[in-house]
Design goal:
alpha/beta, six-stranded parallel β-sheet, 5 helices, 8 strands, about 35% helix
Length: about 190
C-alpha cells in the first residue's frame, strides 16, 4: 500500500443564497485540512456552470469530472429541502458515471429541523448506489443548523462536532483506503 494521502473532496450541494450548509462545508474542510492522511478541496455547485438544456454526460464539466476521477472518496453535504435533495446537486452528480465506480462516499445532511437531514440522506442512498459509489456506515447530521453557527459562521459547539466528524472521517478513510487498494490491485 502507498502512504500517499487520500484525496477526498467535499461537494457543497446547493446554490441557494443564504445557505447554512456553507458554514458546515467550511467547518468540514478546515477540520480535514488538519489530517495528514487526507487532502481535500471544496467543490461548490454554485461555481460550476452546468447547462440545464441537456442532461447526463453530454454536459459534463471537465474540471468536476477530473476532480472526481482523481478522488479516492467524496463527502456530499446536502441540505434537506422538503424532505429531498437539491435538484442542481442531482443534475451535477448525473454528469459523471465511470468516475464514481468503487469509490467511497460519506453523506452529510443539513437541516433547519430536528432530524438533521436524515431524510435527505435516505433519499440520496439509492442514488449513490446507482452511481457506483459505496456509502459508509456512519452519516453526519447537522440538526437545527441555523442555531449551530455564530454570526461569523463559526461553529458554536465545536467539540461535539469534531468528535462526530472524526468518527465519520475514520470510517470514510478506512473505506476509501480499501477501495483504493481494490481499484489498484484487483482486476475486474
Amino acid at each position: 500500500m502507498t502512504n500517499t494521502p487520500l484525496f477526498i473532496p467535499v461537494i457543497l450541494g446547493t446554490p441557494r443564497q443564504g445557505r447554512q450548509s456553507e458554514h458546515v462545508a467550511k467547518f468540514i474542510v478546515e477540520q480535514i485540512a488538519t489530517r495528514d492522511d487526507v487532502e481535500t478541496e471544496l467543490i461548490d455547485v454554485r461555481t460550476i456552470a452546468i447547462p440545464t438544456n441537456d442532461a447526463g454526460e453530454s454536459i459534463k464539466d471537465p474540471q468536476f469530472s477530473a476532480t472526481v476521477e482523481r478522488a479516492d472518496g467524496l463527502i456530499i453535504i446536502a441540505p434537506e429541502y422538503n424532505h429531498g435533495y437539491p435538484g442542481l446537486l442531482k443534475h451535477l452528480l448525473d454528469t459523471c458515471l465511470k468516475e464514481y465506480i468503487h469509490k467511497a462516499v460519506g453523506l452529510c445532511g443539513v437541516s433547519a429541523g430536528a432530524f438533521g437531514g436524515t431524510r435527505v440522506i435516505e433519499n440520496l442512498l439509492p442514488v449513490m448506489r446507482e452511481l457506483g459509489l459505496v456509502t459508509i456506515f456512519y452519516d453526519l447530521n447537522f440538526t437545527n443548523v441555523q442555531d449551530l453557527f455564530d454570526e461569523s459562521g463559526n461553529l458554536i459547539d465545536k467539540q461535539t462536532y469534531i468528535r462526530r466528524l472524526d468518527k465519520f472521517m475514520n470510517e470514510l478513510v478506512w473505506m476509501s483506503t480499501v477501495l483504493r487498494y481494490g481499484r489498484q490491485k484487483v482486476n475486474q
